[in-house]
Amino acid sequence: MRAAAVPVLLCCAALTAQSWPTFFSAYLDGLDAQKRGDHGLATRAFARAIALEPQPGLRVKTYGLNFLPRYFPYLRLAESALALGDLAGAEAALAQSELRGMEPAPERAALRERLRQSRPASAPVAAPPPAPVAVPLPVPADPPPQSPPALPVTSPPMVSAPPTAAQAQVPVARQEVRHAAVTPAALPAPSPIALAPTPVPLPAVPAPAAAPAHRRSWGLLLVPAGLLAALAGFLRRRTRRGARPGAVTQGVASGLMFGPYLAKRELGRGGCATAYFGCHRETGAEVAIKVPHPHLAQDPEFRARFRREASLGALLDHPRVVKILDPGPSEGDPWLAMAFIRGTTLEAFMAGKGSLPVPQAVTIAAQIAEAIAYAHGKGVVHRDLKPANVMLGDQGAVVMDFGIARMLDTSMTTSTMYLGTPLYSAPEGILGSRVGPPADRYALGVILFEMLAGHPPFESETLYRILEAQRFDPLPDLAAIRPHTLPRLVRLVERLCAKAPEERPEDPETLAILEELRTSAQPPAAAPRG
Amino acid sequence: MRGAWLLAMVFTPLVGQALNPAQFQLLAEQSRTAFTVQGAGARAIGTGGAFIAVADDATAVSFNPAGLAQLLRPEVSLVGQADSRDLALTGFQGQAPNQATTFTDTWSKNTHARPTFASFAVPWKRDGLNCTFLLSYQRLFDFAAANSADFQGTASGGSTLQNVSQQVRQSGGVDLYSVALGAELSSRILVGMALNYWYGRSGFQYGSTSQTSGIGVPFNSVLAQSSEFRGINANLGLIWRSEYVNLGVVYRTPFTASYTFTNSYSSVDPATFVPTAQSAATDSKVKWPETLGLGIGLHPGPRLLVTADWSHTPWSSAQYSAAGTPYQGLNWFDYQNPTVTRDTNDLNAGAEWIAYIGDDLVIPLRIGAFREPQPIVDPVTGTQRVLQGWTTGFGVKFHDLTLDLAYKYAHDRRFVSRLDTDAPVGGVAATGLGQEALTDRRIYLSLIYQLNAETVRRAMAWTFIGSEARP
Fold this sequence. Notes:
The complex is a heterodimer of chains A (530) and B (471). By secondary structure, chain A is of the alpha+beta class. In chain A, 45% of the residues lie in helices and 12% in strands. In chain A, strands 5-6-7-8-9-11-10 form a 7-stranded antiparallel β-sheet. Chain A has a 3-stranded antiparallel β-sheet with strand order 12-13-14. In chain A, strands 1-2 form a two-stranded antiparallel sheet. In chain A, strand 1 and strand 2 form a beta hairpin. Chains A and B meet through helix 1, helix 2 and strand 1 of A and strand 8 of B.
C-alpha cells in the first residue's frame, strides 16, 4: 500500500502546472491583487474566475460553509482593466456585466462613466471604425453585451471589445491590411483579455513566437488613415440615407425595418453590406440583418445572385452553421436575416495571441469541418471560408455566410472572377476555375495552420505575391514552426493544403482525423466549482 | 475512556502472572465504548462521521489532510465533546458449579466532557495553487471515567451470598500532536500529509470490597496502574474533486509505540488480616495497525452534500511485545484466543444541506448514520461489539465565526460474560453470561474562527522574519 502511494504522488506532482483551480480562489486573489494595486495579476485572476464560474451572484458557495457574499467578477475585471488603461477590456467586461445582470447597476454605471472619461485620452482605442471602403464585412459582429465564447476544450474564453469602435478595429484592420496588400500591421487595438490561462496542450507544445514586431509598427500609420476613412464613411452614409429615404427600409423611431425585423443598432459596415443587430417585431427573436449597400442592391445581377445564394443558405440547418432565418424579399431591395450569435470571430479571437493551444485549434477545426461537411452534403460551398467568417460562441465554432460570403467580399465583383480573400484562397480559385468543396477544405487547412503556427502560411506585402504563393510555394514546415506538433496533425494540414484539389482529404476523412486528434489531445478539464 | 480498555489489554497479561487477565478485560470493556480511530469535529460527526472526501475545514487533518488544501483563510478551531454512556448488564446466570449462579442486574452511567481538538491552519498560495500548513492537537482516546457497581451474587444452591462493590476510576488519554501540510496539485487533485506524535498517559484504579456471608470481615483490594504511550505515524491523504463528485483516500500508517507502565496491587486477606502488595514496572512495545479510509462526496446541488466513508483497520495484526519479541505469542485484543480478533470495517454516511439567511448567515443542517464494529470480542461468547446509530447536527456560520453542534447516538446489545464476584481477588474467570446493552450519547461542539489573512501574514512575518516584509 505504501508502495502504491509513491507513484500516485509522483503522478500528481506532474500536474502542478495549473494554477487557480477554483473560481473563488482566483477571485479572492484578484481582490487581493487589486488592493495591492497589482492590476495585471488582478485581471488574470478575475479572468480565470470568470472562466471557471461565469455567473456572478450573491452568496455564491465556495467550499465548506464559506461563500462569497458578492461575486462580481466582471465589475472587478472592468476596474482593473481601467486601471491598466485597457479600455476595450473594461468595456467588454462591463458589457458582460450587463448581460449577466446580477451585478449592481449603479456600480456598473459609475465604471462606464469612468470609462467614458478615459476615452478621450486613448484616442487610438476609441477611434471610430475605419471607413468601409475596401473593407469586407467581417462578421455580423456582436452587440455590446457579448458573451465570452465557451469553447468545448479548455480554451480561454475571451472578452473582447464590443463591435463598435475599438473592437471592430481588430478584424477590420487585419482584413484591410490583407486586401490593401500593404505590410501586415495591426492597429493599436485593445488586446482581448484572456479569461483563462492557456491550458497545457497535450503533448506540451512550445508556442511559436508571436507575429513579427514589424507588423505592428505599420499599425500606427493606419490610425490616421482609419480616422479619415471613418469620416468619409460617415459622410457617405449620411449622403445615402438622405438620397434614398425609405427605399429599402422603413424608418421608424428607434431603427430601421426589414420585413418583420427591426434593426436596433448597426453592428458593422463593410464594403458591400451593412450588418445590424435586430429582432423580430412579433417574437422578439434576436437576429443579425445583412443589407447590401445600395450601389450593389441596384445591380440586377447582384440582386438575383444574392437572393439565390441566400435561399440556398437558408436550407442549411446545422448547429455549426449560422442559420439564415429569412433570405429576404423576392422583390425590391435585398436583405437577409440570420441567427444572431453572441461571441467573437475566430479572427478577433486569434488577434495578438500568436498561436492557439493544440486541443483548442483541433476542436475549432473539427467544428468548422463539421459545418462544411454538412453544407457540402447539401450541395452548398462556402467559397470564402476564413477566420472572419467563423464565430466562436457559447456552443463553440459556427460558420456563417455560406454562399453569400464571397458576394459580400469587397474584392469580389459581380462577375465570377475571383479576387477574394487571398490568404485562404485555394489555388484553383485563383486560376478562375469553378471552385467546389475542396476549396473549403483548403481554407480549413490554412485556418488550422494559422491557429497552430500563429500566422497564415503565405503572407506578403503584395496581393500578387500571396496569390503566387498559394499556387506554387510549398507549405511552410509546420513541424518546424511549432515543434512537437502531432505528426498526424501536421500531415492533415499538409494534405488539406495540397495544391491539387483531388489530393485533399474528403470531408468524412478530415472530420474523422480531427475528431480522433481532438480526443487524443483533450487536456484535463478545468475544475468548475470547488 | 475507551483507551482504558487498550491499556488494560496491554498490561493485563503481564500483571496476569499474578492476576487473571480476563478479569481486567471485562473491566476495561465496561469502561469504554468505542475504539474507532476517527477524526474530530462537529461538522463531520453531524454527517455520520463521513468526512474523508469532504475535509474542507481545519478538522480535515484528523480525517484527510489533503482537504486542508481547500482552506483559503487562516483558521483556528476548537472542538469539545461530552459523553453520556449507559451500560446495563442484565439476566446474568452462572455457568459453572461452585460459582455464583445469579446476579442482580446492574446499570451504570458515566458522563464526561472535555476538549478534544484544537488547530491553527495557515494557507498560502504558490503560483495560484493553495497550500495549507496546520498545527493541531487531538485527544484521540480519553480514559477519564468513574464507574461504580454494586451487585449481589448468590452461589449455587443459595448457600453463599456475596455483596460486591466495585469502583473504577480512570484518567488520562492518548493525544495526537500533528503537523500537517495540504496542497493543491491541480484543479482536480489535492494531497496532504500529517505527521502525528502520539502521546498517552493513563491512571487506572480499581477498588473492590466484597462481603461474603459467613465471613465477618470484608475483603478489600486495590489495583493501581499508570502508563505512558509514545509513537509516531503519518496520515497520507488524497482528494480528487470535480464539480459534482469528490473522492478521498486516507492512509494512516502503522507504527510501533513504546509503552511503559507500572502497577501495584494491594489487598487484605480477611482471614489472616495480612496485607499483600505487588508491584511491577515493564517496558514494552505496541504495534498499532494501519487504517485505510475511502470516501466519496456528492454535490447534487450547491446547497446539498451527500457523503460516505469506508474505513478498514486490521486490528488482528496489532501486537504488543516485550524485549523485542511478541509477548507470549498473544495479540492485542484477545489474548485468550488470538485467532478471533476481528478486523473492522467502519461505514459512515451522511448529508448536509445549507440554508442561507440574510446576507451573512449560513445554517447547515446535517444527518448521518454509521456502523462501527469494534475489535472487542467477548472471551467467552465470542460476540463482537458493533456500535451503530445515527447522528444529527446543525451549525451557524456568521461572518468569520462558525459554530457546529452534533449529536451522536450509538447502541449495541450483545451476549457477554461478566465477572461473577470480586474476581481480581479470587482469580477466577468470568462465568456469568447475560445481556450487555450499551447506549452511548455524545455531543460535539466545534468552533471555527477564520482570521484575516493579512493580519496573520504580518504576525508571522514579525515573528519569524523580524519585519513586516512580504515573505
